[in-house]
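Service request form, structural biology core

Requester: graduate student, group of Dr. S.
Request type: structure prediction, single chain
Budget code: on file
Notes: please return the result as structure tokens.

Sequence provided:
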Amino acid sequence: MEASSEAPAGVLERFFKFKQWDTSVKRDTLAGLTTFMVMAYIIFVNPNILGLGGDPAGLPFAAALTSTCLVAGVMTIIMGLFTNRAYAIAPGMGLNAVVAFSLVLGQGLTMENAMGLIVLEGVAITILVLTGFREKIFKSIPIELKKAIVVGIGFFILFIGLVDGGLINVEGGTPVGLVELGTVPMVPLAVTVVAVLATIVMLALRWRAAILLGIVFATVFAIVMNYIWGK
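Core staff response, request fulfilled:
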């Protein structure tokens, strides 16, 4: 008798139940790839924030980068395998700012002490989750406040992108004016403007992979611009 072999798509369907969730392998693969590309910025932004821009008081860049990748990768895999939910888990972009700017620079704690507080916070959250108390607290928070928190984190990430893209003045936190354009690095500015406009056009045309294609286009355009300007 010949041993029957199940196609990879069939194995994935049996495990993740795509039809039950009204999706498909192709759709989830595209969504996962897009999510990864959208989240990949934390690989460099998170270590830069926790490293305090190279300050000796911050975390070593290589260690913070490795930890960021490991936490995001392992926790996202666990989320998919054990809960069958397409949620990506990664270090919080709001909490790292609290550690760096509030606890270390503001309160004068060492990075070791600040990260120790984060460990204690993780233990407390785990206890609240296991006892079911966290869900009760979450449900008691007004929906308006939940939305405000999400919007606030979104604006924080947007601000980082606008600063790195040359559209926001680093020192003053104000939009770059026409007079200041001569002092702004033109390659990041050109990549930001062109990539954002291209993504908006693709979204307007209702391309499913608009965000993913926008990121790929921005990456390729940045490589070309750096090559032309000899960066």
